[in-house]
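Figure-free illustration: sequence to structure, shown twice.
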Amino acid sequence: MDGLLIIDKPAGLTSHDVVARVRRVLKIKRVGHTGTLDPFATGVLVVLIGRATRLAQFLSNAEKEYEAVIRFGYATDTGDLTGQRLETQGAQNISQGVVPTFGEREIEAALESLRGEIEQVPPMYSAKKVEGRKLYDLARRGVAVERQAVKVTIHELEALRLDGAMLKKNEDGTCDLSIRVVCSAGTYIRTLGEAIGERLGRPAHLAALRRTRAGSFKLEDGITLDELEERAEGAQAFLISTDEALRELPFMHLTADEVRATLNGVAFVLRDEAAWPEDQPVRMRNRDGQLVAIGFYDAARRVLRPRVVLFPENKN
């Protein structure tokens, strides 16, 4: 069993929990994923099965899309609803029943200031490693370390209207803003939510997060873990093939001799002129259309070098 599963991750599970459950349900050891979702977050988690685990490098940096709820009124130490409330001036105002208010023009100005390329400092409560140690492990021990800002790109950022209004007021004095974000891989939506709060002069944290797309994989492509368990014997029907998973990459069909060379890791000169750039990844298919390997193009020599071989046996 080789391919991809698009899992609609429920809240309360880590990405590792999802991988472990898929491994148990399908009775297969080689299972991985292409991008971590926080336990409280839901939505698209791309799970790799069997030899498809070798494709992570081609999928992990894909663009992501999210819907999120930012709650204004107080910040938390994790940047989301799972953390401890921080007693800032804004939080004190909330305790006194003062509802934070701002207009739609202020909201749009805050969002506009964060569109495009921006810098983010990875939060302490994240899986990012510093000197080989995961930041959240250090944070849980009360250790804070210096983190370098990284550049990310916010391609789209918009407020979502619910029942015609941008802001939803809550009984506890907080108010919520729902947003849609399309961003580069590595973007922290919690940090983005805090930044929106800073632009509006209000402490804020993330109250909900749902990933609606990872690369070309959308929620409608996915199944829940419960559905997977119910239909485990027919799980093959849910799998996206390794070739389809990389459908955005160019491809070429190999002759029988080229397949044999590829399976042995041997590069070969292309038969036809290629217009690919240097180091372009290329799907290498056999005559049956099966994905045999991923090669990288050497433009100077017009050579395709297999780098990730998916089938150790000759499928021709």
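We now fold a second protein in the same way, so the two outputs can be compared directly.
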Amino acid sequence: MSPPERHDRKTVPNDRGPGPQALIKPRLARSAAVSPARCSALLSTLKEISTATADRQGCHQLLECISAELQAEQAVLILCSPLTRELEFVVHNQDPAVPRMYVDHYGDLDPMGLPDYIKGNVSPPAGSPTTSVFDLMEVVDYKSLVSTEFYNDFFKTGGIHYDLVALVSASSSARGALCLHRARQRKPFSAEEVAILDMMAPFVGNHLEKMASVSVLSVLQMAPGKGVILCDVQGRVLYCNDVARGLCVPMRTTDGTPRLVEDVSFVGYSLGDLKVLAESCNVEVSSREVVLEQGKLGRLITLEPRDGGALAWAEPLKERFGLSNREIEVLNRVMTGGANKEIAQALFVTEYTVKKHLQSIAVKVGARTRTSIAHAVRQELGLTP
């Protein structure tokens, strides 16, 4: 696996030096043996790494172990959020302001192109290994690097000079970069230390796979306002949250198959063409591959209402029950699983105001609870089984 290529940027010289692409040079061939003494010590470190829990605390444990083994002053694990697709950072002995600087500006100047790789915008070459280790000095013209904005305003400010990077691509949903840093007054990473990180990198990949599985579960519970459906590779539904059920209400029975309504969980059913789902329910649909338990692959599907998507049934309800525009807005969010607090935040009102609207809706619809309100509305629209 080579460093991600920077096809998206032009090489434009400036007062800081040449652009990022001009710094990349072919990776040097290397071969280094790890001494028996280091191998013996490494076994205990690998054992400790393998016990790290699949969460941020486990990432801290992993970084601490690897940093101690390779005597790195700082360590950073860069991941990608499974829901937002934004970069996330776990740091060891580094000012949290440094990752923020990277995200806000300097990631675009990174000569290694790590953001594109971690987000999956750049694919590893076919047949490449799932892990690969690079000393930045091997792949970058350092004479040119030290004259760039990236080095002077980011590396130098963060106390970084030597950078050892492990690219990990355990799966499409478990990508990351482990970066180890040393200051300029320290010695560069030795060939033996690079070889040691080569041996550790697969264990980092195993950890990322475990995290990917756990993170999918956390996404299922932490996706307010979004419909979430989890399928296996055959399209069988494994999980569906309440928001997705609400957004899928317009799906009607046309061939005897169950409708996707609140009273049907449709877990175990097969989800077919996503374009049909998007058009029928007037929602934006996105789908991507994820790693499930025990390394199995699946699909994580998220649904979001399009602008004006709730208006298709607004006028009939307003006319039938005498609802106001604001009550329609509240009802729409109730139908898609919104809690009172979430509705209040979305409409910029207090929770007390939301409760008053719900009381008014209940009276007009002839129902007493949120569930019975939703049922009455679906019955009126002909969407109940």
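Summary for the second example: Residues 6-22, 252-264 have pLDDT under 50 and may be disordered.
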